[in-house]
Each structure stands twice: as C-alpha cells, then as structure tokens.
C-alpha cells in the first residue's frame, strides 16, 4: 500500500468515474444550499480500488447520520489523483476533503493548502488517542492515515510452477533465479515488473527502496540523505543486474503502478511488489489467476526483522474549504471504530483506528498471511513526511534510469542523487 506508504494530483478530476469535472471550490461557497445544507467534495483514488459502490455506500450512511451534509465523490486512479491534487494545492482549489499520500504532506502543509488538523480535532473535542498514527509537520497534524497497506511480494503461482520454482523466493539470489526461470519459459512472460514513470515516481518508494528496507537498510542517516551507503548501493546494483538479464518487463521507464497491476493480472508477470489494496481487484478482473503473497526477499544472509514497505490512504481537509467543520465530521466518521473496521475490511487494509478489527483477518487466508507478515516485520517508509518527497523520488528515478538505460555507473548515479537530495533538506 504502498502501498504505500508511499505520490502527487490537475485541476480536472474524474467525477463519478468520468473525466472533466473541476476539482475543489477555490475557497468559494457555491456548495451551500439555500436551506443551509452543504455539499462536501471528497477527492481520492480509493473508490476505483474498492468494490463498485462500496465507498458510495459509506458516504450514504454518513449522510443519513449527518442531515444537512452531502458528499460528492471525485474519484480517479492514483496517478491521476496525484496530478490533480498537486495542481489543486498550488492553485488553492483542493476539494473540501482530500485523500493524501504521506509523501505529499510536507509540501502541502508548507503551501498552506491543507488545514491544521490538530486545531480541528481540538475544536471538535475529538479524542485523538484512538488514532494509530498521525502525520505531522512542525508538530501539528496535517494527515490522518485512514487505512494502511503493506506492500508484499505477489507471485503468479502458475508461472512460477511452470518455471520449476516451487515456492516464492525468500532471498535476492532466489528472486533473481526465479525471475530468470520465468522469463526463460517464453510466451511473453517476464520475471518481474518495475514501474518507473517519472511523472508518478512512487515506484522508487514502493518497488526500489523497499528492497533496502526489507533487509534493515536505510536511505537516511540522522534524518539526512545517505543514499551512497552500502545498503542502497547493493539494491541499485541488484536491480541493474535484473535489468541486464532482461527479466524485467518491457516499458519500465514509462510504466505507472496501474500498468504494473494490469500486466500481473493478465498473467504476463511472475512477480511484483504491490499493495494489498489490489488483491480483490486482481481477483475480480481475472478470477482464474492463481497467485500468492509473501514477504519481500531479503539480502542473502540477513536474519533481522524485515522492513515492510507500506502506504496509507491518508485524509486531510483543504485549508481553503468554507466547510472545515463539516469536512472534519466526515474525517471523524471514517475514523470511528465500526466504520474504520468496515472500511479497512472492504479495502483489505489495516485500520487507522487502534480499536478497529478488520473482518478479513479471520475470513481470508491471503489477508491473514499479510497480517502475519505485517506483525513479524517492521513498518518502513522513509519518504513519509520528508520535504519535497515527490521530487526526491523523481530525482532518484532520473538517475536510476540513467544507470539502467544508458549505463551510467551506479556510484555516479547515487552520488548525483545524494547531492540533489542534500540541497533539498
């Protein structure tokens, strides 16, 4: 999840599944009716990743519990929502309630595009002790993680079996071997898929740096960039070896997350790193696909706890919204014990309310596996809350592509990233 966790969003958004509706109200009050009722705009990428009608149903229940407040969902895939939200933040035209990735928060808070939730919680008398986590900037909360997604390894069981691989790989050496064997089976199948589109560079967070975190590595030292260290160097060297072996699916340099999921769902890829949010989507779109999930492979010889990459469906309130109090009522509703349990169950994620328990832990073996992976590991996403996190990912992406496509030495690429990142801290 991310997911995480771990992305950015155009003035045009998909509304009700279609393209072309403007996002946000630019600080106006055109959403207040003559009878005093208000309509909140809620932009997010969640609805396309949930069963049809699920999020709308939760909004309908909220409206029944809160007469006088309506919710208009503005929904689009993650990459589109990312572009829309970035543009909306810059122009102060964000929706009243906005889905957030933790990597965006620092920038949006500094732009004064999103509201200080600490103040809204205090004004409403909200008990924040029930929250599993909060994303803060300067000591104040700007995002609340609603649900959290671990990003495990997905394996196409049939492709691995055809390649003579009996179980998902547990180490990098095993992973490289499995990827080569799957690719060697022919028929257009590839061992691994890696999304590196620079306009949506969250692949650096989810699909690249996650390899370092899985083996206890870090890209930071004392809160500052440290990307030339041995852990990060070994990851980039490893990925380059997979690229050189031609086991990574074609199109990686322009591929986005949704493209990765589509190719895996269509049975073209042996393995991918992905969010739990997509399990039911994969099942729905290809019921015959046999796949499993496992912890990310660790560096050979590593015996410590594995860092588990994760991402959150975070939520915030637009600082330009004329309906902040009503917007926070929606935030409170989504974070309430029963609703948060329902939402996390539908989304196949771990709840943001410490008292909520998702149904899938007992009813679905694959999610039980994910829950076990989560509990055995250590949540890891070092991009969350960093300044200009999107730019940091993009900077790394540019240099990684130079290494993969143009043969730039790994050490040169990482030195360039180190210099660029250091200038942004």
The percentage helix is: 40-55%
Termini separation: 26 Å
CATH class of the largest domain: Alpha Beta
Q: How many strands, which pairing sense, and closed or not: the largest β-sheet?
A: 8 strands, mixed
Q: Name the CATH architecture of the largest domain.
A: 3-Layer(aba) Sandwich
Question: What structural class results from the helix and strand content?
Answer: alpha/beta
Report low-confidence residues grouped into runs of 5 or more. 1-23
Q: What name is given to the CATH topology of the largest domain?
A: D-Maltodextrin-Binding Protein, domain 2
CATH homology superfamily name of the largest domain? Periplasmic binding protein-like II
Radius of gyration: 21 Å
Bin the strand percentage: 15-25%
Number of distinct beta strands: 16
Q: Give the domain tally.
A: 2
Oligomeric status: single chain
